[in-house]
From TrEMBL:
Belongs to the sulfatase family. This is Sulfatase N-terminal domain-containing protein. It holds the Pfam family Sulfatase. Keywords: Hydrolase, Metal-binding. GO terms for molecular function: metal ion binding; sulfuric ester hydrolase activity. The keyword Hydrolase applies. PANTHER family: IDURONATE 2-SULFATASE (PTHR45953:SF1). It comes from Tessaracoccus aquimaris. PROSITE patterns: SULFATASE_1. Residues 8-227 form the Sulfatase N-terminal domain.
Length: 244
């Protein structure tokens, strides 16, 4: 069963701790030109919020359509929170419809990605940066023969801490946006500049991926929750749960 307009290929790519810190959400100095261009032709949600300001509960809700208390993931998976036994996931439902389901890169729903209902898993460790993740996605994409519609869940580390200069090139601290809930000083600006470097790398690799995916593929870009700063982090507020 090849993909059709009713059963398109589906690409879900998600960052980590990104919030809405993208130029298409009114932060023009955030270096995300590929995501900005994508947003020009996509549906951009301005009132989208994650189910929780914490990684595992948010991701579990995204992939089950159930709130954390209903699916079992009320806390972090590495703290022993797991799906209830009767919970089914999005890849399982799509498999029932003939989809090839694949996980590439980061997930945060279970320490063992093999139990999450995917037909294929190409994990790259717990902290996969976007460059090797997209490399793996493009390699996988080249193997597809068009005989089945596919769902590919692509998870990237950015923009979760840390942001070492060995991995990311920081932005100019003078150009960054300092939100009102943080002190505007050299330490804050250096910290945000480092995060901009992580966002830039995610954007660059998203652009590589976008160039190879055909126009008939349904592409969803999102994140788990807000940015990793003191006020948004793990807080039940707009800052903690606003998502693209």
């Amino acid at each position: 069963m090849p993909p059709t307009p009713d059963t398109p290929n589906v690409l879900l790519i998600h960052g980590h701790d990104m919030g809405r810190w993208l130029s298409c959400y009114g932060l023009p100095n955030v270096p995300t030109p590929n995501l900005n261009a994508f947003g020009d032709t996509a549906i951009v949600f301005e009132q989208a919020f994650s189910a929780a300001p914490l990684c595992t509960p948010s991701r579990g809700a995204m992939l089950t359509g159930m709130l954390p208390h209903a699916n079992g993931l009320n806390g972090l998976s590495h703290d022993s929170w797991l799906y209830f036994d009767d919970v089914r996931t999005l890849p399982e439902y799509l498999s029932d419809e003939g989809y090839l389901t694949t996980l590439i890169g980061l997930q945060h729903e279970n320490p063992d990605p093999l139990v999450l209902g995917y037909e294929q898993v190409r994990g790259l460790g717990f902290l996969p940066r976007s460059e090797p993740v997209v490399d793996a996605m493009l390699e996988w994409l080249a193997e597809q023969d068009g005989q089945r519609p596919w769902f590919c869940n692509v998870g990237c580390w950015e923009a979760h801490r840390p942001w070492p200069e060995t991995d990311y090139v920081p932005a100019d601290p003078a150009t960054v946006h300092v939100p009102a809930y943080l002190p505007d000083n050299e330490h804050t600006r250096a910290d945000i500049a480092a995060m901009y470097g992580a966002l830039a790398q995610f954007d660059e690799n998203f652009g590589r991926l976008l160039a190879e995916v055909d126009d008939e593929t349904l592409i969803i870009v999102t994140t788990d929750h807000g940015v990793p700063f003191p006020a948004p982090r793990a807080r039940c507020s707009t800052r903690g749960s606003a998502s693209p």
